[in-house]
Write a structure and sequence with these properties.
119 residues, alpha+beta, Zincin-like
């Protein structure tokens, strides 16, 4: 029975993160993705005709849907959103697993001398 509750908790987390994705401008689409032998469709974030989308395979188990949402939200600014403590912990764990800092892609500001070889 605890496994059922665990599955329900994961499904609730999927719904919470899908709502958060919508609030930060991602359109969440749940679709059954086509599969062929030897090919595994997963879903994920993409941009289509000026729209940011997250496509979730509705045939995937909730735990895999959760992974897709965590990956799509990993680089988004979620500080202004209310998220449950459990959801925020999951997102922070994902960011730390990926080795991200609080300000990714910032150029090194220590060298102010100009082009190489000039002083």
């Amino acid at each position: 029975m605890s496994e059922l509750r665990g599955g329900a908790r994961i499904a609730a987390m999927v719904e919470e993160l899908a709502a958060a994705a919508e609030r930060v401008g991602l359109q969440v689409r749940r679709e059954r993705l086509l599969r062929e032998v030897g090919y595994r469709a997963r879903g994920g974030a993409c941009r289509l005709r000026e729209k940011d989308l997250v496509i979730i395979d509705s045939a995937q188990p909730p735990a895999e849907q959760l992974e897709v949402l965590l990956e799509a939200l990993r680089t988004r600014d979620l500080e202004a959103l209310y998220l449950s403590p459990a959801a925020r912990r999951l997102l922070q764990n994902r960011a730390s697993q990926k080795g991200e800092s609080s300000q990714p892609n910032q150029p090194d500001q220590t060298d102010q001398s100009g082009p190489a070889g000039q002083s």
